[in-house]
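Q: Hi! First time doing this. I have a protein sequence and I read that you can turn it into a structure. Is that right? Here it is:
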Amino acid sequence: MLKWKRLLVSLMALSLVGMLAACGGGGKPGGANGETAGAGSASGAGGDGQIKLRMMWWGSQERHEATLAALELYTKNHPNITFEPEYSGMDGYLDKLSTQAAAKNAPDIIQLDPGWAPDWAGRNQLSPLDSVDVAKIDPKLLAGGQKDGTQYAMPLGSVAFGLIYDKAALDKLGIKNPENGWTWDDFFALAKEFKGKLPSGQYFTKDYAANYFMYSAYQYSKGKGTVITDDGKFNVDQESFLEWTKRFEELRKEGLVPPADVNSSDKEFDPQMDLMVAGKILFRYSFSNNYGAWDSLKPGAYALVTMPRAEEAGGWLKPSMYLAVSENSKYKEEAEKFIDWFVNDPEAAAILKTSRGLPVNKDNATALEESMSDVDKVGMGLLRATEQDGQTWTAGPGGWTNYIDKDWPLVHDQLSFNKITPEEAYKQLKEAALAYE
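A: Yes, that's right. Below is the predicted 3D structure, encoded as structure tokens:
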């Protein structure tokens, strides 16, 4: 679910030529001198021509370390440019970024989820990226970051939406692993197979009763289209929604999903709070590029499988995320040049690998595949399996971010705590949509 909790770590970069704060610190808070960046810090240029660019992103520890190393290389090649990195988990990221943007103090370079791009471009909060070379990037990946034909957000990678599971736990229990192309009937049948076999405190999967992304996959697979139409209309299929929520209601009653308080305590990629890493759940949704992060927390334990299907595929390929330049940046030209390098430079691609998905630059993607590690090949396997007939991803209409990030999680929590029925949940989502249509 998208009930985010704050986990933000900010660093203050040193302004010395050729140096980047904390690049060797393994992502721990504090720069080389122990200082941390305040939320109100602003980018600036010194009298010696030095320019400091603030850059903000979310992700796993693996992504943090790769990004910091890329920033260090850029500063080495461009000694007048240093960075003030602000990075965190996903929890609280959008709230903080939105607050900064409202105060016209957003970082120069910001990482955006593809679903946010229409809103940010529509509010004129992003600067055009006219000089970024897009010759080696698939136009389908570029489209979601455009408004009226102008590129405002640059895709960074291509990823597949599927499931990750604890293969080691399934093997220990003697339960057959799922295979690509499996169905939702297979998924729910597998859940029942675990009944009576799981130790106390362990569950089949999270309670995804009204999780926006998991339900979207279910409705997609039923051939009912997107939950919100591209022209901004509520399109939750009532029959599919009730079928989905009642199946999870049954899993809840049978103790195959965590109690509501445990379910809501999950913090993705946190070594202690992530329910899968802690051994409390066996399945959860994941994107193909995140496999390396999971594997780093428990090497060799996990595997990926396609999102279950029905009449159609449930999973999809999408841009992993975007980089954009804030409209209020004082250094738009320098920030745009950095994004061009970040997306297209082979050395940058070699450092970043698949931490944000398979690189969108086709030449870099080909070179990376040729030298891909066994871990990265697992993520690539899900991507290749999904692209065969996966759904077409769309950013959807602007103006619906709060509906997805706030209204759906509220309904989900009420279902998880058994406060409302599936019928009431559907009615609540339909009524909430009126404010956005």
